Amino acid sequence: MKFGGHLPYPSRRQPIFARNAVATSQPLATQAGIAMLQRGGSAVDAALATAITLTVVEPCSNGIGSDLFAILWDGRELVGLNASGRAPAAVTPQRYQGQTKLPERSWEAVTIPGAVSAWAALSKRYGKLPFADLFAPAIRYARDGYAVSPVVADKWVKATEVLPHDLGFAEHFLPNGRPPVAGELFRCEPMARTLESIAASGGESFYRGELTHAMVAHAKANGALHTLSDFADHTLDWVKPLGLDFAGTTVHEIPPNGQGIAALMALGILRAFDLA
């Protein structure tokens, strides 16, 4: 059976009735979010613990060095957060002159990652639990290991086919020279140490500390232009979500540079047609 296809038996899914719920594509990440709620954490605490854990248990779909967009209701208003990073300051159009498109999978494609800054900002504004506590499940899975789930194993194979192996991917994510199979134990001690550093420093080590120096050194060794000041100057933006009314419902998205505006544009076009 191919995962993601039709199940060979009838699905007997039932609705969940609960005061709180956590939904992800990976059960271990879901458990991390539920654990924060059980400890008295906020919905944001649960979401952050879930996102942090996903970088470990779904590493080919989520990353510590990624960006983060968020829309949330704080009880009074809808709030948007754009934590996508900028390009290195030294990048100029001349660097890509003659190319038809930017490289997709190399240091040349890497902007300054914003996810870590968003974790810290969201925790500070909306969290109830200590920031470091949100990392405990992810650190445990990275250090002690976890059994790779079938869907993630399938994604791992696909990632292995397209990601460059000489920039650290093979070193950390192909421990036996191949992607782990479903049910196989995967652990990554360097990732555990990285998350511990972020947790202990409130994210500072990622932008102005030991992790920054490591990333910049790796970038320079591979011909990239990232500098310490690029990381230190990183900022995120609290934004007002855009809204559009469609069929009695208001749909909200983050303004550009996010791609959500495309959904609102599509709905705006559809309003001119009688879909019935």
Count of structural domains: 2
DSSP helix count?
Answer: 11
> SSE string, helix = H, strand = E?
HHEEHHEHHEHHHHEEEH
Q: Bin the strand percentage.
A: 5-15%
The poorly predicted ranges are none
Query: Largest sheet at a glance?
Result: 3 strands, antiparallel
* Rg for CA atoms: 20 Å
Percent helix, as a range, is: 40-55%
Widest sheet: strand ordering? 1-2-5
The beta-strand count equals 7
Give average pLDDT, whole number.
94
Q: Separation of termini?
A: 38 Å
Shape: globular
Structural class: alpha+beta
List keywords for this structure.
single chain; 276 residues; alpha+beta; 2 domains; two-stranded antiparallel ribbon; 7 strands; globular
Task: Describe the protein's architecture and organization.
This protein has 276 residues and is an alpha+beta fold. It is 41% helix and 11% strand. It has 2 domains: 27-240, no CATH class; 242-276, no CATH class. The chain has helices spanning 27-38, 43-57, 115-126, 136-144, 150-162, 169-173, 189-201, 204-208, 210-221, 228-232, 260-270; strands spanning 68-73, 78-83, 146-147, 185-186, 237-239, 242-246, 249-253. The chain has a 3-stranded antiparallel beta sheet, covered by helices on one side. A two-stranded antiparallel ribbon has the order 3-4. The longest helix is centred in the first third of the chain and has 15 residues, at 43-57. The mean pLDDT is 94.
